[in-house]
Amino acid sequence: MHPLITQIVGLSAVGTFLLSYQQKKRRNIIFCNVLSRCLYIVQYLLLGAISGAILDILGAVASVIAEKKDSSFIKKHFRGVFSQPMQLSSPWAL
Q1: Contact in structure between 42 and 16 (CB atoms under 8 Å)
Q2: Average confidence (pLDDT) over 25-44
Q3: Given this model, what pLDDT does residue 93 score?
Q4: Residue 33 CB neighbour total at 10 angstroms
């Protein structure tokens, strides 16, 4: 595969990701995020980086789940994930 095609796909992914910051609606933001992740997956596959593609597949799935967090299936199976804020503790906290 020609390296120029891989770079064009990668630049399209970056452009789509940056476009997500210009969106106002949550649904459009997540759509741009998933689209950019799909483009990154294609780029990783063209480069032969399977592990990077797998990580972006998991990220795309997480974005879709976050977009559908109000559906009954997600509420039933992921009820603790979206209902409670994540608590982070610092090793320097007293």
Answers
A1: no
A2: 92
A3: 56
A4: 22
Task: Say how far apart CA 20 and CA 23 lie, in whole Å.
Answer: 5
Residue ranges making up the domain that contains 13: 3-69
Q: How far is CA 11 from CA 3, 72, 89, 90, in A?
A: 12, 37, 37, 37
The answer to whether 42 touches 8, Cβ cutoff 8 Å, is no
Q: Residue 29: inside a domain, yes or no?
A: yes
pTM for this one?
Answer: 0.72
Sign of the Cα pseudo-torsion (53, 10, 67, 31, in order): negative
> Number of folded domains in the chain?
1
With respect to residue 82, please indicate whether it lies within any of the assigned structural domains. Answer: no
Q: Report if residue 83 sits inside a domain.
A: no
Inside any domain, residue 85 = no
d(CA 37, CA 55): 10
